[in-house]
Amino acid sequence: MAQPTVHIVCSDQHRNGKTLLARLLVDFLLLDGRDPLVIDTDAPEGPLRAFFPGRTTLADFAAITGQMKVFDTIMNSPGRDYVIDLPVRHREAFFAAARDLNFFEECHKTGFRVFVMFIVDSSLASLKIARQVREDRSIDLFVPVRSMLVNSQWPADEGALTLPLLPAPLASAISNKRFSLREFINGDPQGLDDDMAHTLRTFMYEVLTGLNNLEPINTLEALKR
pLDDT tens digit string along 75-88? Predict the structure, then answer.
């Protein structure tokens, strides 16, 4: 059984697939027999809460009480995975607060690993920010993500998780809160026609394979330290 992990999904830009990636990650962990709790800091909308109402806590990171709720929720309930969906507007504040509170170091003491998944957008500024986040030695694994929704600046010769582009009708269909990616993987097409189902299976295979490969990558990164 893999070590409990705090997964932070973030980017410096909007509308590049970040929340979809967080959703895929939660379903991947559930399919793997894990028990993730989702912390959605995009209050009051809470888009992830619509897909995982029974395992999502909503925290307004714009308020001090919301910030403490995020950190306290994790530290007070160790032994399970957490997925933090971090909106662009809270990214800098989150990492600043984490540094001030030595949050990642405390996670390690409590038995957690810390993984950061950063969608690198189309600007050089996005690449620069991603590289800065990667330099934080208290992060166990930094995962750059190339989303095909945008022309990512992450170099093609450097490893990254790929988030393929979905056709607009399919992206719209799976955005319905009643559509479960996990149930789709388990054989329920949920109304998709054959062509759309085939496209989604191909998409899911690529993303879930990439997520599955994070464990051996993390082991290699640990050996480098």
Answer: 999 999 999 999 99
pTM score: 0.95
DSSP one-letter string for 22-42: HHHHHHHHHHTT---EEEE-B
pLDDT higher than 60, residue 224: no
CB atoms within 10 A of CB 54: 6
Residue 151 per-residue DSSP state? -
53-108 confidence digits (pLDDT tens): 999 999 989 899 999 999 999 999 999 999 999 999 999 999 999 999 999 999 99
Q: Whole-angstrom Cα distance, residue 176 to residue 210?
A: 24
The domain that contains 140 carries what CATH number? 3.40.50.300
Cβ neighbourhood burial of 72 (10 Å; 0-12, 13-18, 19+): exposed
Instruction: Decide if 122 is inside a domain.
Output: yes
Q: Total structural domains in the chain? A: 1
Domain-embedded: residue 213: no
Taking a C-beta distance cutoff of 8 angstroms, is the pair 66, 43 a contact? yes
User: Residue 96 corresponds to which amino acid?
Assistant: A
Instruction: Kindly state whether residue 17 falls inside one of the protein's structural domains.
Output: yes
What is the distance between the alpha carbons of residues 17 and 119, in angstroms, rounded to a whole number? 8
Spell out where the chain has E strands. 5-11, 37-40, 56-58, 82-85, 113-119, 141-147, 161-163
Range of the domain at 122: 5-165
What three-state secondary structure class fits 209? helix
Q: Is residue 98 part of a domain?
A: yes
